[in-house]
Specification:
The chain has 100 residues and is of the alpha+beta class. Helix content is 18%, strand content 16%. The chain contains one helix and four strands; from the N terminus they run αββββ. It has a two-stranded antiparallel ribbon with strand order 1-4. Strands 2-3 form a two-stranded antiparallel ribbon. β2 and β3 form a beta hairpin. The structure holds protoporphyrin IX containing FE (HEM). Protoporphyrin IX containing FE binds next to α1.
């Protein structure tokens, strides 16, 4: 819910990675450092944060250089379960289309 606060994020339900890129159309500007805290904050924040971000970048760059990814389901029909992180209540269909 913190990451979806419209006070800090325009169109908070949309995945717009460009909102973090300075100079881009969707750039959300310098924000309160506690507005975006997927790894928590303070002395007990995530010890694996830097590792997780590196791993994600390598995994996504490798995957997306080989496949185009499409959702098989309309996001509006996906029911979300709130745990420590938000997750879909049931499986979501994803198509991987090989890039030539
Ligand atoms: C995208 C991946 C990850 C996310 C979103 C994430 C998120 C978080 C969050 C929100 C907390 C704080 C939980 C709380 O307040 O009680 C946390 C703690 C922690 N995370 Fe992660 N984490 C990720 C990956 C990792 C990885 C890869 C490791 C280890 C290699 C790791 C190790 C830890 C540990 C040990 C703590 C407890 C730190 C403490 O209590 O002092 N996490 N993580």
């Amino acid at each position: 819910m913190i990451q979806r606060d419209p006070k800090y994020f325009q169109q908070p339900e949309r995945n717009i990675p460009d909102r973090f890129i300075e100079g881009s159309e969707h750039y959300c500007g310098r924000m309160n450092p506690f507005a975006y805290v997927p790894f928590s904050a303070g002395p007990r924040n995530c010890i694996g944060q830097k590792f997780a971000l590196q791993e994600e970048k390598i995994m996504l760059a490798t995957l997306l250089s080989r496949y185009r990814v499409e959702s098989g389901d309309y996001l509006g029909n996906v029911n979300i379960k709130a745990a420590l992180i938000l997750k879909p209540k049931s499986s979501v269909n994803i198509r991987f289309i090989q890039r030539i």
